[in-house]
C-alpha cells in the first residue's frame, strides 16, 4: 500500500478552516470540493493515457488522452458525496459509482446500505472518495468490494486519516495494489473512534445531523 500525505501550504490552510468548529456548512462544502481537486492532482498522477495525434492551428503534434475504459469514481455516501464535484472537475470523463456505508457508532463496524457499481471492474482505474479514514473499517470494506468486482488497482482520496486506520488498511489490503492520498495524517483516534484533532463528523458537517 502506498500512502501519500499532501505537503502544501494551500492544503494545510484549507484543512485548518475545515477543522474549525465555527466553519458553517456552506463554507465546509466549498472547501471540501476545493481540497479534493488539489488532492486529485496527486491521486491521478498514475492515470493511464494513450498517445493521439492532433492538428494545432500551426502543425500536427502528438499529445495524450485518458485511456478507455473511463476511470471510475466511487464516493462513499454520505460524506464522500461532498468530494464528488471536486473530483469530476479534474476527471470530467469519469464514470461515477456509489457505495452507501454507515459506521455503527457503538461497535464502529461499517454496514453497506447501497451499492450501484458496474459488475465488471477489470481494467478500470478506480478512485474511492471518503473524507475520513478513522478505524479504516469503511474504506477497507469499500476497497474489498471493488477488488471482488475485478479491480486491479484502487486509489483512495481522504482528507484526514488516523494512524490506526492506515495500519488496519495496510493489513487488510496486503498484496493488493492500493494507493491512499491524504490531506493530512492526524495524531490518533479518541475513545469514540473519532479522529484527533480531526474535524468532527464529516457527514454531519456537510449535510447536518440525521
Ligand atoms: O474509518 P471508519 O472508522 O470506518 O470511519 C470512517 C467512516 O465514518 C464516516 O461515515 P459515517 O459512518 O459517519 O456515515 P456518513 O458519511 O453518512 O456520515 C466517514 O465518512 C467514513 O465513511
Ligand atoms: O472523526 C471521524 C471519524 C469517523 N467519521 C467522521 O466523520 N469523523
Ligand atoms: Mg457521519
From TrEMBL:
Pathway: Pyrimidine metabolism; UMP biosynthesis via salvage pathway; UMP from uracil: step 1/1
GO aspect biological process, one term: UMP salvage
Molecular function GO labels: GTP binding; magnesium ion binding; uracil phosphoribosyltransferase activity
The keyword Oxidoreductase is assigned to this record: no
Keyword flag Glycosyltransferase: yes
HAMAP family per record: Upp_B (MF_01218_B)
Name listed for the protein in its UniProt record: Uracil phosphoribosyltransferase
